[in-house]
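Journal club prep — side note

Before the paper discussion, L.F. wants everyone to see what a predicted structure for a comparable chain looks like in token form. Sequence:
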Amino acid sequence: MSGPTVLVLAGGLSHERDVSLRSGRRVAEALRSTGVDVSVHDVDADLLPLLDEVRPALVWPLLHGASGEDGSVKDVLEMCGLPYVGADPRASRLAWSKPVTKTLVASAGLHTPRFVTLPQSLFRELGANQVLSTVTSGLGLPLAVKPSRGGSALGVTIVRTADELPRAMVGSFAYGDTALIEEAVDGTEVAVSVVDTGDGPHALPPVEIVTDGSYDYDARYVPGRTEYFTPARLSDEVTAEVCRVAVQVHRTLGLRHLSRTDLILDPAGQAQVLDVNTAPGMTETSLLPQAAVAAGHDLGQLYGAIVEAALAQS
């Protein structure tokens, strides 16, 4: 295809900078393979002058972590009068906060593990030992401790004994001053990507994730650490259910163009929503591209269709 000039934003200053750069390169390569005029730029002091000079037809922010997923870059693009791929600022802010996301999906009738959200200041005010003892009494073990915002499993720890909880909290607070502590559900981990190229959101084949230990940052981005089954080894009925849940999450949060919902199927077969990504990774090991290929999509054609859909909505 030929047509609009697309500017891909990749990099930034978050902990996920490297993943963003790799995502940006992969999407740009795929779009170029179909004839799209695309360039890649970092998020730095040169960006606003560049936007003013070049005035691209569309911006595709492939930014992971703060600023990229919290809606702030989208706010700036809207003030510049530039259309872009992805959720608008309001929806981005909702999905960026894990506690808000979990509250909204639960209100929509979906399932998510029980959780509490604790700021670091509360530990100083009430005493760390007393707070942690109350947490383990209230939620039981095992637990998943994670920053209330952020992605790529940075700062995430699975806690199986009470003695492991203090170190897990320190690990989480290294990435933000508020931690989300939730029941750690044992089961089959599945990621379902959703795309909308103008005819409404639809789910791509679920990806089943099998890893030795926690599905942490290293397991996500170092080839060989994790085994993926695409499509997931699920019955037709369960596959349809996890796809339904992912599309409902996408709609509930008011997302656009693409998203990825991470779920776990508990021993009873119930799909529990763990997290939602408004800017899914697009690297060579990322889940949305794997699912798209499994569905028979050419990545360049699919990304081009997302570009056309975003332009049509501008």
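L.F.'s comment for the group: The chain has a mean pLDDT of 92. Keep this in mind when we get to the figures.
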